[in-house]
Amino acid sequence: MDISPEKLADAYRLMKTIREFEERMRSEYQQGKLPGFIHIYRNQEAIAVAACLDMTNEDYIASTHRGHGHCIAKGCEIEAMLLELACKEDGLCNGKGGSMHIADMSKGMLGANAIVGGGPPIAAGAALTAKTLGNGAVSMAFIGDGASDQGTVAEALNLAVVLQLPMIFMYENNRYAEFTRNPKPDGRIAERAGAYGMPAEVIDGSDFYAMYEACQRAITRGREGGGPTAIEAVCNRFYGHFEGDPQAYRDQDELKQERADSDPLARFLADERSAALTSEMITAIDGAILAEIDRGFEVALAAADPTPDKLFTNVYIDYAGRLR
Predict the structure, then answer these.
(1) Which of 193, 247, 291, 301 has a CA-to-CA distance to 203 between 20 and 30 Å?
(2) Do 300 and 83 form a contact (C-beta atoms < 8 A)?
(3) What is the pLDDT of residues 167-217, one digit of tens each?
(4) CA–CA separation, 249 vs 142, rounded Å?
């Protein structure tokens, strides 16, 4: 696998941005500055970035309730994201989506989804659009291990195979469905997806390079008309189901060890294939990321809230296709 220094730097920048974004989100949320629930993506950065690194704005993704990392990896702007997460009028969804319903159609980001298993049917529809248009685009659904048992996912798997859609089913198996430990051994999710008649593989979700290779295979297969692919990316969930979850249901010594052993950023930088990233480059990237997040929060927290009359806009669509 040959990755240019520029692409390596981009991969690091995106993973580090997700990491710093989420940690700052936790801090601001704990101070009561942000509304609603948030679900932190830390320790799954390599999955989203490997999946989206070679995608364009014409490719689609459907996200989950834990969607900030997917947004950033797909190219959503930090300031616009923060405006949305603060429920401000100038946010990506005019402050109406918040964390669990954030979307950016201009980037092919079809939305986070608070409905467990709600994303795959949407991604399947986008894949059918791409196939019908013949534009070479692909569609990817991010799916939690808990969502893998939903009927919506089974229907999307079946539809993708029957119609040979350019779609990737990206299962993020962080081993916990909310507060319940996944009792299935790693690989069972991919095995079941493969039974529908598509290539399916199990990948270490903390290993960027392994993830990137798997995603390249899946995306190339979709673009070339080879049909759908399933990937089970196995990782450890760093924080709880939602911010504020004390994770009393987890063995704390085991959790501490998992956190120490499975950091995708540390593994990425320690890999000899990342040697082109010098300390000077990393320092410059880190500084730019922190400055961007600082600016974004300054703008978002000072911005205007939507006025009450906006409650009635973008609710219905008329027959001419215009939102009103």
Answers:
(1) 247
(2) yes
(3) 999 999 999 989 999 888 899 999 999 999 999 999 999 999 999 999 999
(4) 25
How far from 224 is each of 107, 108, 167, 218, CA to CA, in Å? 22, 20, 11, 10
Where do runs of H (alpha helix) occur along the chain?
5-30, 45-52, 68-73, 78-85, 119-133, 151-162, 188-194, 208-223, 252-261, 264-270, 279-302
For β-strands 176-177 and 60-62, DSSP reports them as unpaired
Domain 5-312 superfamily per CATH? Thiamin diphosphate (ThDP)-binding fold, Pyr/PP domains (3.40.50.970)
> Which among 104, 103, 121, 120 is positioned nearest to 112, based on CA atoms?
103
Domain boundary assignment for the chain? 5-312
| Spatial contact of 130 and 60, defined as CB atoms under 8 Å apart | yes
Written as one letter, the residue type at 222 is G
The pTM for the full model equals 0.94
User: Is the torsion defined by CA of 177, 183, 186, 188 positive or negative?
Assistant: negative
Q: In 10 A of CB 75, how many CB atoms?
A: 16
- Phi and psi at 203, nearest 5°, equal -130, 145
* Cα gap 95→306, rounded to integer Å: 7
